[in-house]
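This entry is set out below.
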Amino acid sequence: MDIGTLRGLGTLIVLLGFVALFSWAWSGKRRAAFDEAAALPFADEPHGHGEQPDE
C-alpha cells in the first residue's frame, strides 16, 4: 500500500464524516433542540417589547 492509497482512504473517511455530521445537523429530529439553543442568548431579556427593566 503506497502513500497515495493511504491519502485517498483518509480523504474518503473525512468526506464520510462530513456527510454524516451534515446530515445529523440538518435532520428534522434535531430542529427543536437547535431552536432552543439558538434562543439561549436571549433568555435573560424581558419578554415584553419596549418594556424598560426595573431598576
